[in-house]
Specification:
Layout (H helix, E strand, L loop, with lengths): L7 E9 L11 E3 L9 E6 L2 E7 H6 L4 H6 L1 H19 L5 E9 L4 E9 L9 E10 L3 E5 L2 H12 L6 E6 L2 E6 L2 H15 L4 E2 L4 H7 L1 E4 L3 H10 L3
Parallel strand pairs: 1-2, 5-7
Antiparallel strand pairs: 1-7, 3-4, 4-6, 5-6, 8-10, 8-11, 9-10, 9-12
Helix pairs in contact: 4-7
Length: about 230
């Protein structure tokens, strides 16, 4: 059953594994061989992998952000393509039940976590079942090549009364995670446009930064940087 609204909660999708010519209506869709825009795929374990698409990737595939909330038919096609691309690249056999957790990020794109569930159930070998949940993250994360770029951005955010952020360092890049959703809600697009002048939307999630990144500023990063490097000039 498909529920459409602010979130997709409990979409059950059956994909045909063997019949590549037949398109199944409602909750079943045929498998199609496609070579679309590139995706970033990473294996987390034997039963779990992640897929990341930027918004540019989505546009190349013929989607907009709004389509993911309102166009259920095309959403089925999108997830079918992505999971089959990832399974082919990682050598994961498509059978049984998959849990697909989709997180739409404000500036970066779409982060998908796919988990293969092992259950004591006899499956029809011609189909796999996928339960998809779709949610939207309020986080804004940008990656900077140099810390000097972080300093250069700071006064623009400070004058908009945005002070609270975290700054991480990982793999040669600095990352800024904005932390104040009540302020960001009213000016998200403007903030993203400003930050894009100094940095690039990050494909690294906050969970990855927390686990592997080095914390430079734990909180109030913009205020601390402004006081240290800007106000003293």
């Amino acid at each position: 059953m498909i529920k459409i609204g602010q979130q997709f909660t409990g979409i059950h999708i059956l994909y045909s594994v063997t019949d590549k010519s037949r398109l199944y209506v409602h909750t079943m869709i045929g498998v199609m061989d496609r070579e679309d825009a590139s995706v970033r795929i990473e294996r987390l374990s034997q039963s779990e992998f992640t897929i990341f698409l930027t918004f540019e990737d989505l546009i190349e595939r013929g989607f907009t952000k709004d389509d993911l909330w309102h166009d259920a038919s095309n959403v089925r096609t999108l997830f079918s393509d992505m999971v089959h691309e990832a399974s082919a690249e990682l050598g994961i056999e498509l059978e049984g039940f998959f849990l697909v957790q989709v997180y739409l990020m404000q500036a970066q794109g779409m982060h998908v976590v796919v988990t293969k569930k092992v259950e004591n159930t006899t499956w029809n070998e011609d189909f796999i079942e996928m339960k998809v949940t779709l949610d939207e993250s309020k986080e804004i994360i940008f990656a900077f090549e140099e810390f000097e770029h972080v300093i250069q951005l700071t006064p623009y955010l400070h004058e908009k009364h945005i002070y609270n952020a975290k700054v991480y360092y990982m793999n040669g890049h600095y990352y800024m995670l904005l932390m104040d959703p009540t302020i960001l809600a009213a000016q998200t697009e403007n903030i993203i446009a400003i930050m894009s002048e100094f940095a690039s939307p990050s494909i690294v999630t906050s969970h990855r930064l927390q686990e592997y990144g080095k914390v430079i500023y734990e909180t109030n990063a913009i205020q601390h940087i402004h006081e240290t490097f800007i106000a003293r000039e």
